[in-house]
Amino acid sequence: MDRLNDIAKHFAIEGEIAEIKPLGSGLINDTYKVTTKGTDTPDYVLQRINHHIFTDVDALQSNITAVTRHLRRKLEADGATDIDRRVLNFLPTVEDASKTYFFDGENYWRVMTFIPDALTFDIVNPEYSRHAGRAFGKFQADLVDIPETLVETIPDFHNMEFRLQQLREAIADDKAGRLADVRDIADKLLAHADEMCLAEQLHREGRLPKRICHCDTKVNNMLFDRDGKVLCVIDLDTVMPSYVFSDFGDFMRTAANTGAEDDPDLDRVNFNMDIFRAFTEGYLESAGVFLTREEIENLPYAAALFPYMQAVRFFADYLNGDTYYKTAYADHNLVRTRAQIKLFESVLENTPAMKAFIAERI
Ligand code: GN1
Ligand code: MG
Questions:
Q1: Beta pairing class for 17-22 and 30-36
Q2: Are 138 and 70 in contact (CB under 8 A)?
Q3: What confidence tier does 219 reach under pLDDT thresholds 50, 70, 90?
Q4: Strand pairing of 108-113 and 102-103?
Q5: Closest CA to 132 of 290, 285, 356
Q6: Cα end-to-end distance, the chain, whole Å
């Protein structure tokens, strides 16, 4: 607490700190809420950036500054009134006003203004999904003309070929000695490898562009107001050039799962077509202005790709001995893998229905 207090003081916060407490459920960074005394000053979010994963923190924060500045300008141009609640605001450090991160000799930290009266959800209904679809589509549409060239903060982040290569290495190395008991999972994942690399294939053929995407559109990375209206897209670490499938697919993976990402009860894990339909309609309303036919036609593939990719990533981490994702118990990454495979299979069952739905909207 004292240490966190000292770190927060390196940022240009208003007011006096009352308390600092853990916030949220991210698997990568450590997040805290900084409450200030009284009601006249804002509260803040303090984050320790995982610099083992985001190795170039300076580039990371430059991306985020460019993105938030551009989104702010769009809101101003739209005549939005509540701009401070619609886009994240990162604070400069006291020592250097051009920097939005502080290095304490060991860790990197940043602070943003806390957006009050906002809600996050792990489960949403179709109506909220429609709003979310519209909001993520608008997020992509707003960033189409960002003047800066954004850095890939994690190179090859959503490159399926690369993720499979990592899995193959994890299998070959079997660092934690866990492979023998789970070889069936490795076989099952690798059996779908070729068809799941469609995006890279289309990109090589010049049929699929990279656009600025959010790349972590978990449903709980969106703030809603009390009326279910989307306020703000958060967690901007992975905003970078990618295929639009990233944002469509990761939302489906989290919001259209009737169970949890790490559900131990696979009967609870199924793909919810009502969420798919609502989100797709909202998304096409706002992203339809720039999407190509090829992108739209392959949205059902995107819905399958993300649980598949996440299963590959969780499973590789399990084989490597849990070095990437935070885990709460010994087999957590294995439980996550199984849940994501179950979701992937349920998506495949629903693919003909998804394709029919999309075909009517092209
Ligand atoms: C990580 O930041 P967080 O916890 O929302 C991960 C995502 C995964 C997600 C799985 C930088 O996201 O790619 O989809 O966990 N972020 C990074 O829950 O690897
Ligand atoms: Mg994240």
A1: antiparallel
A2: no
A3: confident
A4: antiparallel
A5: 285
A6: 54
Give the pair of three-digit tokens for residue 221: 């990375």
- Whole-number pLDDT of residue 27: 87
- Say yes or no: CB of residue 27 within 6 Å of ligand 1: yes
Q: Phi and psi dihedrals of 147, rounded to 5?
A: -75, -30
347 neighbors 340 (Cβ within 8 angstroms): no
Say how many Å lie between the CA of residue 26 and the centre of ligand 1: 7
Instruction: Give the residue among 250, 247, 242, 243 at the shortest CA–CA distance from 306.
Output: 250
Q: Is 149 exposed, middle or buried (0-12, 13-18, 19+ CB in 10 A)?
A: exposed
Ligand 1 atom closest to 310 (CA): 14
Q: What is the mean pLDDT of residues 224-231?
A: 88
The answer to whether the CB of 24 is under 6 A from ligand 1 is no
Inter-CA distances, 206 with 145, 201, 270, Å: 21, 9, 34
Say what the pLDDT of residue 156 is.
96
Closest CA to 291 of 302, 276, 275, 277: 302
Question: What is the model's pLDDT at position 283?
Answer: 97
Distance CA 50, CA 41 (A): 28
> Which residue in 237, 283, 226, 257 sits closest to 336, CA to CA?
257
Asked if pLDDT for residue 1 goes beyond 70, the answer is no
- Asked whether 53 lines ligand 1 (CB < 6 A), one says yes
- The continuous run of DSSP H or E covering 240 comes out as strand 240-242
Domains (ranges, CATH) in the chain? 2-113 (3.30.200.20), 126-359 (3.90.1200.10)
The average pLDDT across 271-285 equals: 97
How, if at all, do strands 44-49 and 108-113 pair?
antiparallel
What pTM, to 2 d.p., does this model score?
A: 0.92
